Amino acid sequence: MQAEFFLSKIYNIAYYKSLLLSIIIILTLVSISIYAVMSMPYDVAVKTWNSIEHWEDSPRLALPSWVNFFVSAKLPETIVLDSRQRLGQIEKSTLYIDEMKNITFRASFEYSYEEFPSEIVLRLYVYNVVKSGVIFVYWAKPSGDVIELTRIAVDRSGSYLYYISLDRSLVERYVIRVESKLGRSPDYVMTPEIALFVKEDESMMSRSTVKALKGRYIFLISAIFFEKNAEMDFKLNIYGKVHGMFGTDDRRRDIALAIIWGTPLALSFGLTASLLITFAQMLIAAVCAWFGGVLDMAVQRLTEITMIIPFLPMLIMIAIFYKLDIWTLLLIIIALYTFSGGLKWYRSLFLSLK
User: Hey, is 175 helix, strand or coil?
Assistant: First the structure.
């Protein structure tokens, strides 16, 4: 008998597709919430989300990686060359000449995309340097063309940032080189990403036909220091246009973390608000139905006024203008939604019982 009862309930759930879909969505959200709590504590998630260094290797405003399944020209993924962690094919050599020390890095990577990277950033880490030194940076294409990117003078230990994507002098020098080689310059504003990856032929003259050159690229660094204890490392970020399951925001943060930890927060927020609003509506409706008179009339008029107020735009404006935290916003939602249509329904129910 009990088995037939449960089978009938399951059949009813399967019959109503919207109910089945709702159950699936709720179970999915609950599963994500459990995973979030078990995989990463809330304080660690907040610290990670606000950490600039943690997202250093992620592209900015990237699309989800699965987008590549639906496009003909695959969007590039991020390439990281880090001499400290030996990420990528990196060779290091050191040469001593009297008091001078020459450190050379040769890193290579394969690029198999027609689209260009979104950004290119070079970070240099210099150690045990007191006197001056100079670092030469070069870029070699699969075609054999070598481009000198920059020369960086160093006079102390520390980190040096070379934002290649903002180097307009690199673009100007490259355009002059293209003019001397092909006889004319491109008809669009070239970026450093295009200059370093473009296929140097007639197709590069128009923005609609320009394509990245596929093949193995070589990145070269030659540093000269005037002290034997000097050392250095580098990290080259060639940022792609796709990343992870959900992409990234304008601060390079992975949207997946926001979705995973946003799910339990949203569920707890909604559940708490719903329970408190329901309890408050039932309590106020019971009082109004029992005592009636002026109190009941005042509450009903207030409810009718609040029922015509657009709550969602109001909540968005309050949250933006006053920068409220989540708990203050919860109290405002409870205060606004308590005097809504649900209160009238509970009042009518209590009046029928009275």
Answer: helix
Question: What is the Cα–Cα distance from 243 to 252, expressed in whole angstroms?
Answer: 10
- Residue 247's region, left for phi above 0, alpha for psi from -120 to 50, else beta, is left
Map out the domains of the chain as residue ranges: 1-39, 65-252, 254-354
CA nearest neighbour of 131 among 15, 197, 256, 229: 229
Residue type, 179: E
pLDDT in tens, 141-168: 999 999 999 999 998 899 999 999 999 9
Side-chain half-sphere CA neighbours of 257 within 13 A: 20
Please write down the HEC assignment for all residues of 239-299: ECCECCCCCECCCCCEHHHHHHHHHHHHHHHHHHHHHHHHHHHHHHHHHHHHHCHHHHHHH
Residue 80 CB coordination number (10 Å): 15
Q: Which helix (H) or strand (E) holds 71?
A: none
3-state secondary structure of 207: coil
Taking the complete model, does pTM exceed 0.90, yes or no?
A: no
Residues 6+ apart with CB under 8 A from 165: 119, 120, 121, 191, 192, 193
Do residues 135 and 220 lie in contact, with contact meaning Cβ atoms separated by under 8 Å?
Answer: no
pLDDT digits (tens, 9 = 90+) for 1-28: 556 666 666 666 666 777 778 888 888 9
C-alpha 295/C-alpha 173 separation (Å) is 80
Sign for the CA dihedral angle at 34, 39, 44, 46 comes to negative
Place of tokens 């029992």: 290
Helix residue ranges, H only, 115-254: 168-182, 192-197
Q: What is the pLDDT of residues 189-236, one digit of tens each?
A: 899 999 999 988 888 888 888 999 999 999 999 999 988 889 999 999
Cα four-point dihedral sign 165, 171, 177, 180: positive
Say whether domain 65-252 belongs to CATH 2.20.28. no
